[in-house]
Automatic annotation (TrEMBL):
Keywords: Signal. It comes from the Bacteria. This is Campylo_MOMP domain-containing protein. It comes from Aliarcobacter cibarius. The keyword Membrane does not apply. Residues 1-20 form the signal peptide. The keyword Signal applies. InterPro entries: Porin_dom_sf (IPR023614).
């Protein structure tokens, strides 16, 4: 009964908030605290999600698993007052069912039923300066998901965006899993990114990240766009601190290149290659997030001496989105292989309501040291955003 009440209450709440939000859009800046609160913006979403994993070979340690989840997101941000605004976002999850005891908690994982995913103070000056402090969604080269951070974005220079900040904790939370905020490294991570697009068709982004007593890495990402072709070349290397795990982790590095081509309108294809350091891989660099691996799972993309080749295609027609991705990762001293196929389809009923399904097939090497089994994974979701 509690699960039904959660979904029903969420539906009623969403309709109430949508109506309220229609009357509270930011038409102008607030002049007093009352206006800042009453003219604030509400956003959120409701979703139903299910996942099933069928292993090709089962034993006492590896069994099929499945679970379903009902998800609610509710966020609010005040209208800016003298450049300042305050925002918060809560996410809630309710188990709809599971195949075996523990599938829901350990399979995703869902570590909490409710989470303050965002809670921040924001200060902005026109489109030149933006400072956000607190829990927030982040999309930087090596910071992703939700971070407990302070991030400053400055675009005072023409065609240049400078981002600098610090994060102490991260969490991944959504319709398919929800983590507690945790520390990937003991003393957090500092970063600086400079993105410049002053050259025609070219965007360059040099950056440096440093996690005290863990790792310092720096890299350069370049994008070249011309007509229907987009090329990416990205390289990063690092120095791992001798204090991190008693100096038992080697330096990390990674190379990524990708070419994307729009063949005809709404039909796109891409091909890429990823290579990590022969001794250290790139795992520690991804501790706070990443934007390179294209796979749904991709267990070995950042492993030691991993070489990944992949190709994909996507097509949109009417309100239907179709995509397919296939890749092979070779890794380790014995040149082991992991093959992964992702096929997905989505349908947009409206701008707010969509449904999607995905099939994931993973074929691991029989000599896999971690004993990962081969499996098929099936994902399905329906999501409404307001």
């Amino acid at each position: 009964m509690r699960k039904r009440s959660f979904v029903l209450s969420a539906l009623i709440l969403s309709q109430t908030l949508v109506f309220a939000n229609e009357n509270q859009e930011h038409h102008h800046k607030a002049t007093n605290i009352s206006d800042a609160i009453t003219q604030g913006k509400i956003n959120g979403g409701l979703a139903l999600y299910g996942q099933s994993v069928d292993l090709k070979k089962q034993d006492n340690d590896n069994k099929d698993y499945a679970y379903g989840n009902a998800h609610l997101t509710l966020g609010y941000e005040t209208n800016p007052l003298y450049g300042f605004s305050i925002g918060a976002e809560f996410k809630g999850n309710a188990k709809l069912g599971e195949k075996n005891d523990g599938d829901y908690i350990y399979g995703a994982p869902f570590q909490n039923e409710a989470l303050l995913s965002q809670g921040f103070i924001n200060y902005s000056v026109s489109d030149i300066v933006n400072l956000r402090v607190g829990r927030q969604e982040v999309d930087k080269e090596w910071l992703g998901d939700n971070q407990e951070a302070a991030i400053l974005d400055v675009s005072a220079l023409k065609d240049t965006l400078i981002s600098v900040g610090y994060s102490r904790k991260k969490a991944e939370t959504g319709i398919d899993l929800s983590e507690h905020f945790y520390k990937p490294t003991e003393k957090g991570i500092y970063f600086l990114e400079v993105e410049n697009s002053s050259l025609e068709n070219i965007t360059l982004k040099p950056y440096v990240y440093t996690a005290p007593e863990a790792i310092t890495f720096y890299g350069l990402k370049g994008n070249f766009e011309v007509e229907n072709l987009d090329l990416v070349l990205h390289y990063a290397t690092s120095n791992v601190s001798d204090k991190f795990e008693d100096g038992n982790v080697e330096d990390n590095s990674i190379l990524h290149t990708e070419a994307s081509l729009e063949i005809i309108e709404n039909l796109n294809t891409n091909i890429g290659y990823i290579k990590t350091d022969k001794k250290g891989g790139a795992g520690l660099m991804t501790a706070y997030g990443d934007n390179i691996s294209p796979f749904e799972d991709g267990f070995y993309v950042y492993d030691i001496d991993a070489r990944t080749y992949y190709a994909g295609v996507s097509y949109s027609i009417l309100d239907i989105d179709l995509s397919a991705l296939y890749g092979i990762t070779k890794y380790g001293e014995e040149n082991q292989k992991e093959k992964e196929l992702n096929i997905s389809a989505g349908y947009n009923f409206t701008e707010e309501l969509n449904a999607s399904v995905m099939w994931v097939n993973v074929d691991t090497d029989k000599n896999d040291a971690n004993n990962y089994p081969n499996y098929n994974k099936y994902l399905a979701s329906v999501e409404y955003k307001f």
